[in-house]
Each structure stands twice: as C-alpha cells, then as structure tokens.
Design goal:
- By secondary structure, the protein is α+β, with helices and mostly antiparallel strands.
- It has one domain: ORF SCO4226, nickel-binding ferredoxin-like monomer (Alpha-Beta Plaits, 2-Layer Sandwich).
- It has two helices and four strands; from the N terminus they run E-H-E-E-H-E.
- The protein has a four-stranded antiparallel β-sheet with strand order 2-3-1-4, covered by helices on one side.
- Strand 2 and strand 3 form a beta hairpin.
- Helix 1 crosses helix 2.
- The chain is globular and about 30 Å long.
Length: 82
C-alpha cells in the first residue's frame, strides 16, 4: 500500500462539526475501497489541511473524495521520513 496525501484549502475556517461531517461521508467509501486513514493535520487558522491515507494509488483517493463530496486541491503519493 502507498502513502497518499490529500491537500485541502478552505475559504473559511473549518469547525469540528464541518470536519466530522466530511469524515462521516468519507468513512463508508474508505471501507469500500479498502483505504485506511492515518492522520490529518489542520493549520492553526483552520483554513488548510493535509490528510494521510494508505491506499493502492492516488486515483482511488481522488474517487473517494469525489464520492464523499469532500473538497480537495491535490492528491499525491508520498513517503514517510522518520
């Protein structure tokens, strides 16, 4: 499985309720495509977010984001550096 990064930029700050609503719509899609959410980072102003997943490829994540109605800017394959 590859590490896939989803970048998101928002016009207005996102509340916890906003983020939960997207996660709730996304959860069944992740299960259907056998994708695992790893972690998300949100900026201090809540207008930018980066989410990390494990999936077979980036196109699968693009499909999930569209099906879940989740806003995203870029999806790309990355590597974890520790």
């Amino acid at each position: 499985m590859a590490r896939i990064v989803v970048e998101r930029n928002f016009e207005t700050p996102q509340s916890d309720a906003d983020m939960k609503a997207v996660a709730d719509r996304e959860r069944p899609c992740l299960a259907a495509y056998q994708v695992t959410w790893k972690r998300s980072l949100i900026s201090a102003d809540h207008k930018r977010m980066v989410c990390e997943y494990e999936a077979s490829d980036a196109e699968t994540l693009r499909r999930i984001q569209r099906e879940a109605g989740a806003q995203f800017d870029r999806v790309w394959v990355g590597e974890v550096i520790e």
